Amino acid sequence: MASYSTNEFKSGLKVMIDGDPCAMVDVEFVKPGKGQAFTRVKMRNLKSGRIWERTFKSGESVEAADVMDRDMEYLYADGEFWHFMLTDGSFEQFAADEAAVGEAKQWLKEQTQCVVTLYNNNPLAVTPPNFVELEVVETDPGLKGDTAQGGSKPATLSTGAVVRVPLFINQGEVLKIDTRSGEYVSRA
Amino acid sequence: MTQWQPAASLAVIRQRAQLYARIRAFFAARGVLEVDTPVLSQAAVSDPHLAPMSTSFEGPGVAQPRPLFLQTSPEYPMKRLLAAGSGPIYQLAKAFRNGEAGGRHNPEFCMLEWYRPGFDEHQLMDEVADLVGEVLARDDFVRLSYRQAFERFVGLDPHEASLATLQGCARERLDLELESDNRDTWLNLLLSHLVEPELRAPTFIFDFPASQAALARVHPDERGTRVARRFELYTDGVELANGYFELTDSAEQTRRFNADQQQRRALGVSPLPLDEHLLAALAAGLPECAGVALGVDRLLMLASGCERIEQVLAFPFDRA
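Structure tokens for the assembled complex are given below, as produced in the milestone run.
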């Protein structure tokens, strides 16, 4: 297995810490004018999401994590797993459990292009596209004449997600949503 | 795309010019002489934790390429001037350190170094406070002994605690896998991780462990512990300056250089040529003096409110 020395550390690097895959969030070089150098890393555990700081002595090395991001298409959910397929022409399929899908599940409709993070070839995390287009299945009737401004109201989308939308939106309309903030952007 | 533009804003580039002018006016008013010594030297610093950059010269009078080192600080040639009777001197110098890059480190940086014959470390701290206080418009300077700082922020006595206590404390408060039986490694770790970030008001730490004396004199403190007459200044959690009541005993200096060379070998880094010119000057006699080196780029960071060193450098390392 490959390893990285402290000189190769940079944010985004995926490494194994105490048996778990982790990503470096922030890397800081610490050295007193007189004395040893250390590298202090803000680390995120990719399984638990926990963020903490770990200190390395300069020159120390750490094992690389077998973690890679792959482009996949969402196929369907069977109640227990969410199924994805590689879009590289191999048609290879992967089943992600609820922990891996996490928040992404509320934005997934069939054929959505996602990035699936694989750890030892198993889905570890699912990142939906930044923007998705989803149909409104339930909301209060739209207010005629109110097309630009005013308040907002909840709308349930086809995936079950509930977002705040402007008052003029009607059931059956397709909306563009920013998955990073979970906010309505526009009509699609 | 190639970034040809400066990393620092033009406002900060102007602020640097004002800072240099202010530093020069400060020393001119106090009768301290500005000097200029070579950046390139045939010899290198002995400090085991400093890695000089090297190059070579080949040309008239030098048939075989002669190895040269870029200075890690102007300390050695300035001490030669002191031994020659220069009186108080200062220098704004470029210094170079291999292996050091990050939010507070650029491999090439600006150092202000000055020496005051007749001063001890506390008198020099007064003068550092005058300069830094003027630049940062602060007057809330604090002095803590190394022991007081550890008792306050770490909860142990750094001179009395056993190696196992230091290790246990570091492992409890920090996440790391470090094996070392060197006390100073653990003390440096605790200082940089638990003490330094807490020092927001300008704080002088003095009376360092004798094992970290470098070229400072050693004396017994009020509890009889042998401590180094060395100080560091921290402000807003940033290490700004390091100073000594300078050792003038040339036999003791030679002993420390040799100890450094041994430690370099133990650390697996090659010994570097000792500065014979310096040793000869020290043998001739360095006047009683205190000296300090201050990171000018970091001072400018604090003065301008910049978080990272590249924000105060026209062309930091990756654009140089």
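The CA atoms of residues 82 and 178 of chain B lie 42 Å apart. The interface with chain A takes residues 47, 49, 99-105, 174-178, 180, 184-185, 188-189, 191-193, 196, 212, 214, 232, 239, 242, 293, 295 of chain B (CB under 8 Å). Further analysis is deferred to the final report.
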